[in-house]
Design brief:
Shape: globular
CATH superfamily: Ribonuclease Inhibitor
Low-confidence stretches: 1-8, 125-133
CATH architecture: Alpha-Beta Horseshoe
Helix content: under 10%
Mean pLDDT: 85
Oligomer: single chain
Number of strands: 10
Strand content: 25-35%
Order of helices and strands: HEEEEEEEEEE
CATH topology: Leucine-rich repeat, LRR (right-handed beta-alpha superhelix)
Number of domains: 1
Number of helices: 1
């Protein structure tokens, strides 16, 4: 299935986010997909490893995208490892982070505008097309 069709059919419940193992997600119940989103409890920090999938209410959801502004302004974020299940990084996902390292797998087919805007400390990882120091 192409990236366009995956995104076209994703029906994220953006009114309700769920917390699983310290991360917040929007869920697409029909396709069993999860989109990592911003934290209601403050900013994500430290070394982050995004899981391949999550279990919520005894259902397994594949983590397929990182939502708009999910890690925006996370000034204590050091590194992020993105799993092969992720195919899309939304716009402004990591803007103004203190991020120094990111691992982006080849499964990521699209990166939104300004996803890494003003990430001045980013020194390792696959160079995102939208990175603007």
């Amino acid at each position: 299935m192409s990236m366009v069709s995956i995104q076209a059919f994703a029906d994220w419940d953006t009114y309700n986010s769920v917390k699983v193992d310290g991360f917040y997600y929007y869920l697409d119940e029909d396709n069993h997909q999860a989109q990592l989103t911003w934290s209601r409890e403050g900013k994500y920090s430290g070394d982050i490893v995004i899981p391949v999938d999550i279990t919520y209410n005894r259902k397994v959801y594949s983590v397929t995208s990182i939502g708009k502004e999910a890690f925006s302004n996370c000034t204590d974020l050091i590194s992020v490892t993105i799993p092969n299940s992720v195919t899309h990084i939304d716009k402004n996902s990591f803007e103004e982070c203190s991020l120094t390292s990111i691992t982006i797998p080849n499964s990521v087919k699209s990166i939104g505008e300004d996803a890494f805007y003003y990430c001045r400390d980013l020194t390792t990882g696959r160079s995102p097309r939208t990175y603007r120091p």
